[in-house]
Design goal:
244 residues, 2 domains, 3 helices, alpha+beta, eight-stranded antiparallel beta barrel
């Protein structure tokens, strides 16, 4: 009889304990914690904002500066100094794989260059040259994900540029003859590196910062003083962008 009473008492205590709010809350909290951990793991394993945006294709607005220069393959090459100009336009990025994407871009690029030539028995000649190009380019981007909110990339690809306008000043005075024989188009290669970073997850915006080097492959000297002389565009650009 005593054993039966003890058994009934133990059963009653067990039922009361499992039915108590404290136990129920503890069980619910434990289950909720497990669910949150699983959800966090799924989010960490899944693609971030940058990967998602690039997978569907993203348009961008890019603004920055170009440090332009010229390289002369001449018997007596002048010393060109880099000048500062505007560089910006629109881009479109689309990923092909998790690590590789392609880009097309249309840019306006202003190249400002100065040089000074010494003339025997006369005054030095200072040339200030401005070349404004409409540039179309395409690059391949190899990306390395630093985190779900940041991705580093390197890029390379060709560009073609159309000369929209030009201006030359000799010793501060405009000189149309200095630019009339320039070639109307330029071809070259772009190489560089940059970084994508998340700006707004709710607005699905990503930003970018990019440094590139542009190496002209076609001479822009249409009728040089010496027929074997060749002049090539060179530029370093620094751009920031917003992609949506």
């Amino acid at each position: 009889m005593k054993k039966l009473l003890l058994s009934l008492l133990a059963t009653s205590l067990l039922v009361a304990f499992t039915a108590s709010p404290v136990w129920a809350d503890s069980t619910e909290t434990s289950v909720a914690t497990k669910k949150r951990k699983k959800a966090k793991k799924r989010r960490a394993a899944g693609p971030g904002l940058i990967d998602r945006q690039l997978a569907k294709g993203t348009y961008g607005l890019s603004l920055g500066v170009a440090f332009g220069s010229l390289e002369c393959d001449c018997d007596e090459a002048p010393d060109y100094e880099r000048g500062l100009g505007f560089h910006g336009g629109v881009t479109f990025d689309k990923s092909m794989t998790r690590a590789f994407s392609v880009r097309g871009e249309g840019l306006f690029s202003s190249r400002n260059v100065t040089s000074e030539t010494s003339v025997m028995g006369g005054d030095d000649i200072e040339l200030e040259l401005t070349l404004n190009y409409l540039e179309l380019g395409g690059q391949g981007l190899l990306r390395f994900s630093a985190s779900r909110l940041m991705s580093i990339y390197v890029l390379a690809g060709p560009y073609a540029a159309l000369l929209m306008s030009s201006e030359a000043r000799l010793n501060g005075k405009k000189n149309k003859d200095a630019t009339k024989d320039l070639e109307s188009a330029d071809l070259g290669l772009t190489v560089g590196a940059g970084i994508f970073f998340a700006l707004s997850n709710s607005m699905k915006l990503i930003g970018s910062l990019q440094l590139t080097y542009k190496h002209g492959l076609a001479t822009i000297a249409g009728k040089p003083a010496n027929k074997d002389d060749e002049i090539f565009n060179r530029a370093v650009t620094l751009n920031g962008g917003v992609h949506f």
